[in-house]
């Protein structure tokens, strides 16, 4: 167990005894999955959150959000201490990031009968692309699409269901979630390749009481001990992200 005084808290500091409230985005299947025998969230974000709690000598409490947009909308509410989210330059007015610990891919899905064969086919006039507003990859699409129409959805799941219903031509999302959806629905397929790579990091509110330095120190310790690679492999990610 680490000495909490090394990370900005002292044994007499009430904050050192309060639960570390960890915000997780349930829509990001690369980081969090819900299911199994207990129905509780699990995944790399949960495992790293517990490791961070041990590093700071604080018990851990998960705070779940249905989407990245909902999580970011709560930044000023004081309801969480750290969050496992994608690195997005548009968020740096509200949060600060640790160094990345993982990179994931943004991909496109289409209906099985679609003529599209690769991501290069997507950015065309009259093509409707559904994407979760507030997601880091949505911001990338806002900046990069020149001809296709971007249709903002509340969550990644809404975008995929809108695709199946024929109300858009393409749905964007994180590879793990999109591939899982396509595996369950034979009328949907994932286009080869990716349209972006998204770094994942630990975020803290700009005016919070946990520093980015503490987060980086924790990640450095986990990296040096081999525990980060072990946790990544356990959760289906290659060692080193």
Give structural attributes:
single chain, alpha/beta, D-Maltodextrin-Binding Protein, domain 2, ten-stranded mixed β-sheet, two-stranded antiparallel sheet, 7 helices, 12 strands, 28% helix
Polypeptide structure, described:
With 241 residues, the chain is of the alpha/beta class. It folds into 2 domains: 4-102 and 199-234, 3-Layer(aba) Sandwich (D-Maltodextrin-Binding Protein, domain 2); 105-196, Periplasmic binding protein-like II (D-Maltodextrin-Binding Protein, domain 2), CATH 3.40.190.10. It has helices at residues 44-55, 68-73, 136-144, 156-164, 175-184, 212-225, 227-234; strands at residues 20-25, 33-34, 41-42, 60-65, 82-86, 95-97, 102-111, 128-132, 149-153, 170-174, 188-190, 196-205. The strands form 2 sheets. Strands 1, 4, 5, 6, 7, 8, 9, 10, 11 and 12 form a 10-stranded mixed sheet that branches. Strands 2-3 form a two-stranded antiparallel sheet. The longest helix has 14 residues, at 212-225. The radius of gyration is 19 Å and the shape is globular. The two termini are 26 Å apart.
Describe this structure in a few short sentences:
With about 240 residues, this protein is an alpha/beta fold. The protein has helices spanning about 45-55, 70-75, 135-145, 155-165, 175-185, 210-225, 225-235, and strands at about 20-25, 35, 40, 60-65, 80-85, 95, 100-110, 130, 150-155, 170-175, 190, 195-205. The strands form 2 sheets. Strands 1, 4, 5, 6, 7, 8, 9, 10, 11 and 12 form a 10-stranded mixed beta sheet that branches. Strands 2-3 form a two-stranded antiparallel ribbon.
């Amino acid at each position: 167990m680490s000495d909490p005084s090394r990370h900005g808290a002292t044994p007499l500091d009430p904050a050192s005894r309060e639960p570390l409230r960890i915000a997780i985005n349930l829509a990001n299947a690369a980081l969090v999955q819900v299911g199994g025998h207990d129905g509780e969230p699990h995944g790399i974000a949960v495992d790293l959150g517990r490791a961070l709690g041990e590093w700071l000598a604080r018990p851990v409490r998960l705070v779940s959000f249905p989407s990245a947009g909902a999580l970011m909308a709560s930044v000023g509410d004081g309801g969480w201490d750290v969050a496992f989210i994608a690195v997005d330059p548009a968020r740096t007015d509200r949060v600060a990031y640790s160094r990345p610990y993982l990179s994931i891919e943004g991909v496109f899905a289409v209906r099985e009968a679609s003529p599209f064969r690769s991501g290069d086919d997507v950015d065309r006039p009259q093509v409707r692309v559904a994407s979760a507003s507030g997601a880091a990859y949505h911001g990338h699409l806002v900046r990069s699409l020149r001809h296709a129409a971007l249709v903002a959805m509340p969550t990644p799941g809404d975008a995929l269901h809108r695709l199946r219903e024929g109300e858009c031509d393409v749905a964007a999302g994180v590879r793990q979630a999109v591939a899982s959806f396509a595996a369950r629905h034979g009328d949907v397929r994932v286009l080869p390749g990716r349209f972006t790579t998204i770094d994942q990091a630990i975020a803290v509110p700009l005016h919070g009481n946990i520093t980015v330095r503490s987060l980086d120190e924790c990640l450095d310790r986990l990296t040096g001990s081999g525990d980060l690679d072990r946790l990544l492999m356990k959760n289906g990610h290659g060692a080193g992200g």
